[in-house]
Each structure stands twice: as C-alpha cells, then as structure tokens.
Specification:
78 residues, transmembrane helix, mainly alpha, single chain, 2 helices, membrane, transmembrane
Length: 78
C-alpha cells in the first residue's frame, strides 16, 4: 500500500503546551452610525418589553387584588 506522508511534521503540537500562531487576523471594520443606532434601538426595545411585562405582571400577581368571592359569569345561571 502506498502511504502518504505529511509534508509538515505536527509532533510539535502534541509536545507544546499551547499552540502559538504568528498569523494575526485582519482588523475588524468599524461599525457605521446606523449599525450602532440599530443595536441601541434593539436593546432599548428589549428592555422596554421587560419593564412593560413587569408593570403588567406584578399587579396581577398581588394576592390582595384577587377576590376569592368572585363567581365566574358562566356559573351565575345555575
């Protein structure tokens, strides 16, 4: 059988504690004003939704607001 050998020995990877690369990634392009404004608007929308759900949900969970004597309208005709 024909065995293909690696052109570069990779035994140093197993012996090294950490692989260090000398290749640096290209710099990220700067975000435009519209992209930053869109991210801020999205964040504000999420926060406003959470605050709104708290404002509507907390009063509904208040035990003093719940009236146990209240009878549903469907049971009144019996």
């Amino acid at each position: 059988m024909l065995r293909r050998g690696e052109t570069v020995p990779f035994t140093f990877l197993a012996e090294a504690e950490r692989f260090r690369s000398n290749v640096t990634p290209p710099p990220r392009p700067r975000r435009s004003f519209a992209e930053r404004a869109g991210s801020a608007l999205f964040g504000l929308t999420v926060i406003a939704g959470l605050v709104g759900s708290l404002m509507l949900g907390v009063p509904a969970l208040d035990p003093e607001q719940q009236n146990p004597q209240r009878v549903p309208a469907a049971a009144e005709g019996r």
